[in-house]
């Protein structure tokens, strides 16, 4: 099952290395990691998409992350109301005749063409990973020359529905 | 005053000598109360060693002959003193020679401070002479590590490092010191009183009372309770509480390898060690119990055997200071995050009805009677188990005993009954050969007045025996007993049992003359070949005031029993009866 986990970390040297080394060593399956600064000086946020077998394994991921000295807070936000976005850049084979056709395909995705050359087009799209996936599939027949994805970044929405589901697996610290 | 100093050229140069980052490091170590320091110099660490020279009287400085010797000695020191072991080494090969010991300390939760020299910042990343990415190498085997990039941060880093190493679940913390930082001239003075700023590190020592209440209720209802004591009890200094608790509710007790001594080994409730070479009684009890209370053990696979056969019908309560240990290998029905002592004190305040489990106690008593640990007794030849029994008798069971890794280690765990905490030093999680002898040196430095015995194999001893130099240098009366089976015994045993007696690289055809070897280090050496000779040698070993190396020749074919073969469960022990 796929889970989205966020970790707030201190911007101290080696922290990213520590976290990724930990995930690798414990054989946690990582689909993507994205990292960037936050509103607080000296703090960054990492978003992981992990593929884990069961809740026991998931609990280990969050606990091991929590154990790191420079990790301030770890949350599994999968079951919350969240905003999750990814950015992808897709370069496809194209020519002037195809441009309008491509434009038609990407419009519903609110993607945009950000670079044009004689034989290629570069498209930028942001959104949920599934949306990006869907667009990539639509563009695949044109021939994808290059694809770059940032990985998901996410946080919980300002307002959470009042009934939370019973994901009580991480409540050991209580 | 100033005038007189100026007339003394020595003092004058000393006074002019500016204060460096390395001096600041040394001041910080003094400030942390470090008394013993294990070091090995080299280029990138020279400013540090220069600062140590200037502060010569501040520490007892130990020069091992190999960095691995330094760190295992520091581990032995940490284990019996409860204080962090402090090691200083140079960059590159100095640092990589420490790696085994760092990993060992990490998995066995020993508080350690490791300071490594590093090439100057200007050449970091250029494959400079003796450069290794020590941060990268040690990230997975340290509780935390630092590379100092700004000398002003040094006092804070040292303060944090000691705090992290010694609190929560203890562990090794490494500080990598680029040479230019160590050599940097500093003008400012730094206050030694540094506020800790570690928002991400808040070990939870207080157990949740709702959870301890749950455990209390489970005890009241248990028909077959078992208590498993791990090294977490030793770190928490909770031996008295464990004894009180077990006696109050008559709960039978078993121990992990590293937890030995947390509960008195001669107590009627004690069933012996559990696990691969544990007792039949302990392993059967773990298999049959309906309530398992694990205090401070991490459910290592050498303890559990096949997981599906581990306490299959039990409610599992797990008390651990490290929340990540709970549920890692064995799911916990009653998870309790906290310090073992705090948890036991809390438990003792709950109302618990004495569990109705007389049948259980009878069954355990009968198992103890009927299936004790055993060994063959040859007429004259010696075997390892017998040697350990003699050592136990000769020391009244009061010695600090360190071991290396292999058959002799398991025999010591089985036949040297540990009745008191902090007398037992062994490499559990990593199973590091070469650990036992230097660890004894560290233990003796920490406890100069106690008898320290290193029980080692002929294989493992040869990995770090150059540290015999320290015995002579520091006047340490360590007693080294080589259980010499002329083989890598434990490997030989596995090859005999599981590889159709194909003894690949496990038999030594050539051995050094251990007596001469000891003598060349100015240490008394003895060889004993028969039981009679050993018994005669006992006063020569234990009444003698200095160090001794005993080459005890034992039969090669002897195996460690009983045993849970790899891949099998607690209920499938072999070699339970002779
Ligand atoms: C550094 C290291 N290398 C290899 C091993 C694998 N190993 C485990 S026990 C053992 C044999 C130990 O032989 P010896 O020291 O003679 O002790 P004995 O088993 O004979 O008592 C070996 C090679 C190890 N534990 N550590």
Report, as a whole number of angstroms, the end-to-end distance of chain A. Answer: 25 Å
- Give the overall silhouette of chain A: elongated
Q: Kindly, what is the distance between the CA atoms of the first and last residues of chain B, rounded to a whole number of angstroms?
A: 80 Å
Structural class of chain A: alpha+beta
Overall geometry of chain B: globular
Q: Which keywords apply here?
A:
heterodimer, A: 174 residues, alpha+beta, five-stranded antiparallel β-sheet, four-stranded antiparallel β-sheet, 4 helices, 9 strands, 26% helix, B: 578 residues, alpha/beta, six-stranded parallel β-sheet, 25 helices, 39% helix, 15% strand, globular, binds thiamine diphosphate, amino-acid biosynthesis (chain B), AHAS_TPP (chain B), EC 2.2.1.6 (chain B), THDP-binding (chain B), Acetolactate_synth_lsu (chain B)
Provide an overview of this structure.
The complex is a heterodimer of chains A (174) and B (578). Chain A has 174 residues and is an alpha+beta fold. Chain A has helices at 15-25, 55-67, 96-106, 129-139; strands spanning 2-10, 29-37, 43-51, 71-76, 82-93, 112-116, 120-127, 144-149, 153-156. The longest helix of chain A is centred in the middle third of the chain and has 13 residues, at 55-67. By secondary structure, chain B is of the alpha/beta class. Residues 1-13 of chain B have low confidence and may be disordered. At the A-B interface, helix 1, helix 2 and strand 4 of A face strand 5 of B. Bound molecules: thiamine diphosphate. Residues 404-408, 431-434, 457-460, 483, 485, 487-491 of chain B line the site of thiamine diphosphate. Chain B: Pathway: Amino-acid biosynthesis; L-valine biosynthesis; L-valine from pyruvate: step 1/4; Amino-acid biosynthesis; L-isoleucine biosynthesis; L-isoleucine from 2-oxobutanoate: step 1/4. Chain B: Residues 213-346 form the Thiamine pyrophosphate enzyme central domain.
């Amino acid at each position: 099952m796929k889970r989205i986990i966020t970790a707030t970390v201190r911007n101290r040297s080696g922290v990213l290395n520590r976290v990724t080394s930990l995930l690798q060593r414990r054989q946690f399956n990582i689909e993507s990691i994205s990292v960037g600064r936050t509103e607080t000086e000296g703090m960054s946020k990492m978003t992981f998409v992990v593929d884990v077998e069961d809740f026991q394994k998931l609990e280990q991921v969050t606990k091991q992350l929590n154990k790191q000295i420079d990790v301030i807070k770890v949350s599994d936000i999968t079951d919350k109301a969240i905003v999750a976005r990814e950015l992808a850049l897709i370069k496809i084979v194209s020519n002037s005749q195809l441009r309008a056709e491509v434009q038609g395909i990407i419009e519903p995705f609110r993607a945009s063409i950000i670079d044009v050359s004689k034989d290629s087009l570069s498209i930028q799209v942001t959104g949920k990973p599934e949306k990006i996936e869907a667009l990539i599939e639509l563009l695949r027949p044109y021939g994808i020359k290059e694809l770059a994805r940032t990985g998901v970044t996410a946080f919980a929405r300002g307002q959470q529905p009042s009934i939370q589901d019973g994901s009580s697996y991480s409540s050991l610290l209580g | 005053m100033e005038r007189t100093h100026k007339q003394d050229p020595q003092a004058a140069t000393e006074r002019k000598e500016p204060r460096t980052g390395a001096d600041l490091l040394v001041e910080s170590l003094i400030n942390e109360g470090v008394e013993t320091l294990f070091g090995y110099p080299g280029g990138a660490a020279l400013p540090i060693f220069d600062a140590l020279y200037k502060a010569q009287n501040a520490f007892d400085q130990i020069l091992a002959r190999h960095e691995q010797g330094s760190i295992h000695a520091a581990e032995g020191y940490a284990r019996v003193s409860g204080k962090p072991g402090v090691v200083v080494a140079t960059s590159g090969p100095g640092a990589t020679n420490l790696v085994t010991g760092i990993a060992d300390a990490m998995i066995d939760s020993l508080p350690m401070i490791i300071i490594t020299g590093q090439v100057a910042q200007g050449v970091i990343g250029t494959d400079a002479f003796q450069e290794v990415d020590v941060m990268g190498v040690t990230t997975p085997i340290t509780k935390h590590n630092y590379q100092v990039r700004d000398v002003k941060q040094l006092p804070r880093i040292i303060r944090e490092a000691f705090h992290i190493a010694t609190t929560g679940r203890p562990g090794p913390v490494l500080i990598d010191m680029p040479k230019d930082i160590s050599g940097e001239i500093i003008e400012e003075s730094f206050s030694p009183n540094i506020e800790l700023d570690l928002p991400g590190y808040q070990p939870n020592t207080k157990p949740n009372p709702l959870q301890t209440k749950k455990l209390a209720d489970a005890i009241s209802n248990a028909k077959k309770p078992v208590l498993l004591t791990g090294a977490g009890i030793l770190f928490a200094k909770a031996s008295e509480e464990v004894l009180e608790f077990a006696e109050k509710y008559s709960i039978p007790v078993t121990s992990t390898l590293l937890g030995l001594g947390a509960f008195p080994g001669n107590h009627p409730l004690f069933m012996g060690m559990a696990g691969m070479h544990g007792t039949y009684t302990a392993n059967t009890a773990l298999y049959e119990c309906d309530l398992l209370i694990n205090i401070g053990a991490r459910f290592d696979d050498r303890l559990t055997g096949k997981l599906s056969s581990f306490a299959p019908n039990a409610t599992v309560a797990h008390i651990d200071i490290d929340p990540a240990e709970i549920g890692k290998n064995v799911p916990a029905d009653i998870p309790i995050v906290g310090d073992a002592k705090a948890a036991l004190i809390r438990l003792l305040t709950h109302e618990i009805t004495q569990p109705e489990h007389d049948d259980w106690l009878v069954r355990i008593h009968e198992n103890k009677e009927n299936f004790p640990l055993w060994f063959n007794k040859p007429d004259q030849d010696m075997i390892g188990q017998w040697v350990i029994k003699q050592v136990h008798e000769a020391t009244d069971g009061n010695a600090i005993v360190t071991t290396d890794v292999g058959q002799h280690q398991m025999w010591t765990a089985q036949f040297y009954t540990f009745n008191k905490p902090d007398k037992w030093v062994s490499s559990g999680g990593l199973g590091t050969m070469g650990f036992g002898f230097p660890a004894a040196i560290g233990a003796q430095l920490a406890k100069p007045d106690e008898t320290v015995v290193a029980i080692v194999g002929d294989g493992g001893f040869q990995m770090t025996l150059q540290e015999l130099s320290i015995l002579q240098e520091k006047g340490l009366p360590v007693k080294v007993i080589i259980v010499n089976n002329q083989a890598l015994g434990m490997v030989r045993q596995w090859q005999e049992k599981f590889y159709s007696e194909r003894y690949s690289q496990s038999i030594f055809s050539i051995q050094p003359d251990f007596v001469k070897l000891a003598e060349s280090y100015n240490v008394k050496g003895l060889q004993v070949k028969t039981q009679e000779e050993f018994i005669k040698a006992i006063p020569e070993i234990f009444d003698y005031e200095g160090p001794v190396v005993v080459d005890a020749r034992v039969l090669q074919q002897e195996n460690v029993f009983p045993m849970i073969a790899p891949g099998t469960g607690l209920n499938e022990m072999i070699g339970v009866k002779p």
